[in-house]
Amino acid sequence: MGLNLALEAAKDHQVFGTVKDHTLRTDAFAVHQTDLLVPGAVEKVLDKTQPDWVIHCAALANVDACEANPALARGLNTELPKKLATHVGRGGARLVHVSTDAVFDGQRGDYTEEDRPNPLSIYAQSKLNGEIAVAEANPNAIIARVNLFGWSLTGVRSLAEFFFYNLSADKQVMGFTDVYFCPLLVNHLARIFLKMLASDLNGLYHVVSRDCFSKYDFGIKIARRFNLNERLITPTTVEQAGLNAARSPKLTLRTDKLTRDLGEPPPDLSTGIEDFYTLYQQGYPQQLQGLGNR
Fold first, then answer.
1. Among 156, 166, 209, 266, which one is least packed by beta carbons within 10 Å?
2. Smallest Cα–Cα separation from 16: which of 61, 47, 60, 39?
């Protein structure tokens, strides 16, 4: 998400990006290598870059990894956002804090920003705590609950890539028929964040696609657009998959507030998949992966 966001923003803005472990070489934006959990690191980055806008993408987003290491989940998903929100607010910059649709238990679906969250996993709880901490430390911040897909540096960061690369290799995969979500193409998400900042918005928003599907149906749509064998996708349930952390079954979120305040709805899933396909045709996945190999 951070890399796609930086590349989108760099078209019209001066961008500084931070990385922790991997090497990233690009002429599109400045790269600062740092561990934001080290004491003083946040302050140092902000002092050095003097940003007007900050979009915070760093997180421990692997649900099972959070179950295995709750202390790291708390540090990255709760404590770091709180520190960042505090220091960004003091410096007068605007902040977008990226949260998740997983703060809801998914029993009902069709959630608005006014609905009460009920996190089921350590990941979801740490992200909800991060939302609360950011809102308290910096009331002017934007808190965005998202679900996204797109191309990544490693090729393994999104569900769309999972389906594409496995089906391209003629490998059998599972697709959940009992988990619903509203994924937004990461490039669309990046552009929406920039519009939200330019529009001087603040507070909590659901920033997802305006339509929702099961993960199985999502896989089928990817397969059909890329002319891959959809029969390789086995419909299954979360219980049958035997996952460690609990998953919320119906994470369908409403985007009425975002549509009202931006004056236009977010793109639908068909548009997202079509643009995902177009980026592939343009060689964008290889361009991203090349940034880590130069």
1. 156
2. 47
Name beta bridge partners: 98: 144
According to DSSP, the β-strands at 30-33 and 16-19 are parallel
Looking at this protein, which amino acid is placed at residue 253?
A: L
SS3 287: helix
C-alpha dihedral (206, 208, 214, 219), degrees to nearest 10: -160
- For the stretch 197-236, pLDDT in tens is 999 999 999 999 999 999 999 999 999 999 999 999 999 9
Scan for tokens 């690369």, then name that residue.
165
| Burial zone of 116 (CB within 10 Å; 0-12 exposed, 13-18 middle, 19+ buried) | exposed
Give the pLDDT confidence of 39-93 residue by residue, as tens digits: 999 999 999 999 999 999 999 998 889 999 999 999 999 999 999 999 998 989 9
Domains (range + CATH), the chain:
2-155+182-212+253-270 (3.40.50.720)
Per-residue DSSP letter, 101: G
Q: Which H or E run contains 148?
A: strand 148-149
Q: Which two tokens stand for residue 128?
A: 């909800």
Structure tokens at 26: 């690009």
Amino acid identity for residue 144 in this structure: A
